Amino acid sequence: MPRKKPQLERVREAIDGLNDQLLDLLNQRTALVEEIRAFKVEHGMDLYDPVREARQIQSLMMKNRGPMSNAMVEHVFKEIFRASLSQQMRKGTDQAPLVLERSGTPRIVDVGGVPIGGGKPTIIAGPCAVESEDYLEQVAEAFARLGLKFIRGGAFKPRTSPYTFQGLGMPGVDLLRKVASRHDLRVVTEITDACLLPQFSDRVDVIQVGARNMYNYDLLKKLGNAGRPVLLKRHFAATLDEFFQAAEYLLSSGNRRVILCERGIRTFENATRNTLDISAVCLIKEYTDLPVVVDVSHAAGRKDLLVPLSRAVLAAGADGIMIEVHPNPAVAMSDGSQQLSLGDFERYLEGIASFL
Predict the structure, then answer these.
(1) Are strands 109-111 and 114-116 parallel, antiparallel or unpaired?
(2) Nearest-CA neighbor of 97 among 283, 260, 249?
(3) pLDDT per residue over 167-194, tens digit each?
(4) Which domains are present in the chain?
(5) Which of 130, 146, 183, 356 has the largest count of CB atoms under 10 Å?
(6) pLDDT confidence of residue 89
(7) Is residue 125 within 8 Å of residue 148, measured between CB atoms?
């Protein structure tokens, strides 16, 4: 009589058969995803629909009868959905988007020996605009005393009105570098024109791309070869897909030291300057390994919300906070209503200390 197959072997063969079926079903699903992508591209729709994804997962968990736990079902299908999004974004290209590459380990951007990402949250603070050496010195001295490592300030100020203060230009960058060097701080400031890169390269530690320049793809490509970390701000009307694609320009041009910055989006609400998209922090951490910081000052446009908003984004997983601080906000040349005084800033740090 023929020998009966051991039970383990029979079960393994059954699993192999199911694996083959799952592979066929996943390929069928991928073909349908490509149909959906073609339709969305034709009609100018966003490729990523987080609301539909959440509904699908919720429906699957309600149908689940085990033995898989709902947590396992959620994890498996999120990975399937993430692969589908990657498939849609790389269609017509030779490789998957670098921004969605995940190693499982959060990416750390080293800035002169100071890490951003993967550990203790970073505070990037300073005046909205560089106005004088005296003001910068007061701020930098306080930051060094408080143990901070970064100072920010706008030397080039793209403003909505052409009649408002536009910044000091390169003399402002020089002031930032001078004061920061005295106090061992790293400089973060915005670039507005690629022609400034040679001057920025030896003065600026983190080059910021402002919200208005997120769509400046020529600038992003040149920053990909700049040899400096880049902090990319989300445009106030950009979807996450568009934000990721902007980051892709930097990454695909060779710069892997990219930091994403959520700074609020424009909605119908006018109680705040912008609407802070806290869900964006969660989704960036879910779909990418890139560090993300949140500019709470530009999101709120007011001082009374800065502590609770900062607590919320740090609880959501943000790698850092960007916040505006001025020695005398009442006479600031731009955005005085959202800048903290030095005393208020120390109280702010006390208010978020448990999240740092």
Answers:
(1) antiparallel
(2) 249
(3) 788 999 999 999 999 999 999 999 999 9
(4) 7-96 (1.20.59.10), 109-355 (3.20.20.70)
(5) 130
(6) 66
(7) yes
Q: What is the pTM of this model?
A: 0.74
- Please check whether residue 326 is in contact with residue 341, taking contact to mean a CB–CB distance below 8 angstroms: yes
Distance (Å, rounded) from C-alpha 40 to C-alpha 53? 16
d(CA 192, CA 210): 8
**What residues form DSSP beta bridges with 122?**
320
- Please report which residue ranges of 43-69 form alpha helices under DSSP H: 50-63
- Can you tell me the distance from the alpha carbon of 40 to that of 33, in angstroms, rounded to the nearest whole number? 10
Q: Where are the beta strands (DSSP E) in the chain?
A: 109-111, 114-116, 122-126, 150-152, 186-191, 206-209, 230-233, 258-262, 292-295, 320-324
Q: Which helix (H) or strand (E) holds 31?
A: helix 7-42
Nearest CA to 150 out of 194, 115, 105, 103 is that of: 115
The torsion angle over the Cα atoms of residues 344, 174, 207 and 321, rounded to 10 degrees, is -10
DSSP 255: -
Beta pairing, strands 320-324 & 122-126 = parallel
Among candidates 123, 180, 153, which has minimal Cα distance to 319? 123
Mean residue pLDDT of the chain comes to 90
The three-state secondary structure class of 59 is helix
- Residue 60 corresponds to which tokens in the numbers above? 């699957």
Are the CB atoms for 201 and 227 separated by under 8 Å?
yes
User: What pLDDT is stored for residue 258 in this prediction?
Assistant: 96
Whether residue 166 contacts residue 157, with contact meaning beta carbons closer than 8 Å, is answered with yes
Alpha carbons 185 and 122: distance in angstroms, whole number: 13
Give the closest residue to 49 by CA, choosing from 241, 225, 186. 241
Copy the structure tokens of residue 65. Answer: 């009868």
Residue linked to tokens 């040679």 = 198
